Amino acid sequence: MSRPLVALASLGGTITMTGSGTGGVSPSLTAADLVSAVPGLADAADLRATTLATSPGASLGTADMRRCLAWAAESVRAGAAGVVVVQGTDTIEETAYFLDLHWDHDEPLVVTGAMRTPQAAGPDGPANLYAAVITAAEPASRGLGALVVMNDTVHAARRVRKCHTSAPQAFVSPGFGVLGHVVEGRVRYGNAVARHPVLPLPQEGPHPRVAMVETCFDDDGGLLAYAAAQHDGIVLAGFGVGHVPAALAGTVSAATARVPVVLASRTGAGSTARETYGFAGSERDLIARGAIPAGFLDARKSRILLGSLLALGVPHERILAEFGARGAWAQGPTVADSGGSESV
Ligand code: ASP
């Protein structure tokens, strides 16, 4: 039986990191090195491995993601059933969402990495790579956009979060759960996720500067005011369902007068509210002052979405509609409305 063609690109990350002595580990292995270290992988798929970068996740940027999208599109044009991107786990929750927003193909784009280095006792990289390739080759993964596969679980890019510094089970999908599990070399999907319409990839050039500001106990608003003066947009991670101290409400008004301000939650799970609390600095107050509620999108994902929307140059009402649809607090058309469902 012929094996599905799967293209795999490495950007670096712990999964590629080696070292000796006291200098610590750093990215060194190539995509071909990674593939050759996984037992059974050659039986699962016909692999084409490419090294796009050898960077830690912390140093990846929008330019790397653009290269990644171009490589992935070229791979599916050349016949790949799916593609796998290997990278540092530190930024997967952001990069995977960027890729998901702009991945205009039915073939699955699967992102994976490792929490332990190849030299650790019990590295998780080979198992993650195997599960990612299985997921990319799986026909049931088609049409799901970008997926994150770690620890034999499959996550939707728009939900996944890294919530542990070192555990192999560091990735979770708060609220709605994982999409599926890899079991005995097959993916078993149990949760559906309808894709949101794909956004066009903005023209190359400097990406908008979007600040992510988390409020905190006794916040004086200095950082928010600075961010509003220096950036093209702000994501404000508020308390609970989207609150800041009353003393910051005026700073939020000043910020929304300058740039789009998206109001997310710093809690890490759940949706912002829109019509519950009425005190100064509450979500109702901040929305009345022009803040855009993020709904179920967390602050990191909100920052990615706002950056792409600003790069596309869409008007404010469109930004509001996109957050309403993608954050699931409203129904409405989106920038690239292709008839997709508005489900969470
Ligand atoms: N700890 C990270 C990783 O899991 C390091 C990185 O993101 O490069 O890959």
From TrEMBL:
PROSITE patterns on file: ASN_GLN_ASE_3
Family: Belongs to the asparaginase 1 family.
CDD domains on file: L-asparaginase_II (cd08964)
Keyword Zinc: no
Taxonomy, superkingdom: Bacteria
SUPFAM superfamilies (alphabetical): Glutaminase/Asparaginase
Keywords: Hydrolase
Domain Asparaginase/glutaminase C-terminal positions: 209-319
A matching Pfam family: Asparaginase_C
Active site annotation, chain numbering: 14
Domain L-asparaginase N-terminal: residue ranges: 6-191
Alphabetized GO MF terms: asparaginase activity
Source species: Nonomuraea cypriaca
Name listed for the protein in its UniProt record: Asparaginase
GO biological process: asparagine metabolic process
